[in-house]
């Protein structure tokens, strides 16, 4: 069985190297994820291959939602959970697992604010993607599955700056020796920056969701 994967030109070198290590057939197409997806859909229609959408497919969102199960098993007393948002698959899956039992806080950078923009507009809308976390959180429009789940179960949406993300990356490394890519550190940035302020004694969880980091930029 072979895999043909479509990625945009903004893909990080670390992610590209890992895909090459897996011997996948890689197509670097377009400036952003939406253009890569368009090329992928055209290829899938041509070949009839099984489509695996990065974030807006029920099987993918369900798989990502198992992170919520792990959190609940390990920290059943959790009050709130901060999650970074790109296309919405991760927060859609995790928030659908909890279904309001835990307060879910969406965190996005100002350059990748798909959910924040959708909540403001009352529906998914296209955005111009930019900034430090664009290679991971850079969907141009939030997926319908993630948006619908967030509409039901996400308590709050906050934004952070690229500097906030860089500060979170630095703390993760200096204090915990954990390497996180910008998108992976975005949820923590929401807490450290004060974009989200917990109540006294609130038990807060933070999902660090990606380690595909170019070490030369750490």
Brief digest:
The protein has 9 helices and 6 strands, in the order E-H-E-H-H-E-H-E-H-H-H-E-H-H-E. The protein is an alpha/beta fold and 218 residues long. The protein folds into 2 domains: 4-47, no CATH class; 60-217, Rossmann fold (3-Layer(aba) Sandwich).
Descriptive account of the structure:
- This protein is α/β, with parallel strands linked by helices and 218 residues long.
- It folds into two domains: 4-47, no CATH class; 60-217, Rossmann fold (3-Layer(aba) Sandwich).
- It has nine helices and six strands.
- Strand 1, helix 1 and strand 2 (25-28) form a beta-alpha-beta unit.
- Helix 3 crosses helix 4 (89-98) and helix 4 runs parallel beside helix 7 (144-153).
- The chain is globular, with a radius of gyration of 17 Å.
- The N and C termini lie far apart (35 Å).
- The model has no long low-confidence stretch (mean pLDDT 95).
What's the tally of helices? 9
Number of domains: 2
Mean pLDDT: 95
| CATH T-level topology of the largest domain | Rossmann fold
Assign a percent range to the helix content. Answer: 40-55%
**Structural class designation:** alpha/beta
The main β sheet shows up as:
4 strands, parallel
Output the helix-strand order: EHEHHEHEHHHEHHE
């Amino acid at each position: 069985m072979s895999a043909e994967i479509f990625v945009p030109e903004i893909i990080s070198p670390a992610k590209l190297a890992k895909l090459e290590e897996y011997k996948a057939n890689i197509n670097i197409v377009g400036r952003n994820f939406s253009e890569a997806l368009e090329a992928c859909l055209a290829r899938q229609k041509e070949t009839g291959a099984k489509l695996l959408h990065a974030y807006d497919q029920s099987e993918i969102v369900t798989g990502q939602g198992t992170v919520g199960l792990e959190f609940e098993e390990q920290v059943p007393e959790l009050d709130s959970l901060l999650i970074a948002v790109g296309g919405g698959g991760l927060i859609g899956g995790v928030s659908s697992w909890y279904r309001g039992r835990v307060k879910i806080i969406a965190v996005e950078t100002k350059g990748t604010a798909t959910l924040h923009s959708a909540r403001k507009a009352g529906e998914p809308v296209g955005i111009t993607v930019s900034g430090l976390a664009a290679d991971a959180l850079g969907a141009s429009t939030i997926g319908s599955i993630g948006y619908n789940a967030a509409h039901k179960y996400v308590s709050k949406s906050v934004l952070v700056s690229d500097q906030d993300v860089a500060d979170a990356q630095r703390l993760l490394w200096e204090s915990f020796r954990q390497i996180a890519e910008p998108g992976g550190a975005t949820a923590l940035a929401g807490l450290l920056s004060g974009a989200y302020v917990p109540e006294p004694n609130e038990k807060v969880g933070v999902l660090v969701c990606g380690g595909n980091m170019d070490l030369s930029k750490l």
